[in-house]
């Protein structure tokens, strides 16, 4: 069901790779709610995914950009404003990558060149995106910027590795830049701390299936799906949440507030 929540609104969606991506589901939902957008991803990711299919389905244009490159981001923002016919109302940052995880390096045996690359892609890129938007004055008042995160920023999940540090930095950037974007431009900045979700990127984390099963047993409402996250993101892009900013919003079926569940107790007392 659609409500025209984003009718007339324009934006950029980073990170759609394939139909398992939260960014992909969000793009579909934004389109259904009347929003228009430019799709973007790193050139290498675009070659790996099916973003052309999504663009065709949503009537969107694609503009490749490396989110760690200030020049690429400046070109992207300028092109998006040109293509869409005006300033932007929403931006989704759905980007994350750990070279240490990909290479099987333990947290206690990081290769710091890998760490720096992962931090740049996963966390500092959020600052770069917002700084580019801010300097270009590319956002309309009461616009909304959202980044995706995970609760490993607050609690320890050993196999999440250095991505936990990246997410903690990402959330701090949202609060810090959110202050300036709010004061100077009346733009909202929030992060969504999503349930473990079987995206292409998420499944690269060691023991991910067990991780999802445990979270499902711990969460009173069960895990939030990628589609659920898309719905929540649309609510944050809409005018219904105009005074919500600088928040890390847990979207995890209650996992983050649950000490232990009956299901988990029963699992360990069989």
Verbal overview:
The chain has 270 residues and is α/β, with parallel strands linked by helices. The chain has ten helices and seven strands. It has helices at residues 22-32, 43-48, 51-58, 70-84, 99-102, 112-135, 163-185, 208-218, 226-237, 262-268, and strands at 10-14, 36-40, 61-62, 88-93, 139-149, 188-194, 248-251. α7 (163-185) links the parallel β5 (139-149) and β6. α1 packs parallel to α3. It starts with 9 loop residues before the first strand and ends with a helix. The model has no long low-confidence stretch (mean pLDDT 95).
Describe the structure using short key phrases:
10 helices; 15% strand; 270 residues; single chain; 45% helix; 7-stranded parallel β-sheet; alpha/beta
Offer a concise description of the structure.
The protein has helices spanning 22-32, 43-48, 51-58, 70-84, 99-102, 112-135, 163-185, 208-218, 226-237, 262-268, and strands at 10-14, 36-40, 61-62, 88-93, 139-149, 188-194, 248-251.
Taken as a percent bin, the fraction of beta residues is 5-15%
Structural class comes to: alpha/beta
H/E element sequence: EHEHHEHEHHEHEHHEH
* Unreliably modeled segments: none
Shape: globular
Helix content: 40-55%
Strand order in space, largest sheet: 3-2-1-4-5-6-7
Compute the CA-based radius of gyration.
Answer: 18 Å
Biggest sheet details: 7 strands, parallel
Q: Taking all residues together, what is the mean pLDDT?
A: 95
Count of helical regions? 10
Distance between the termini: 43 Å
Got a strand count? Answer: 7
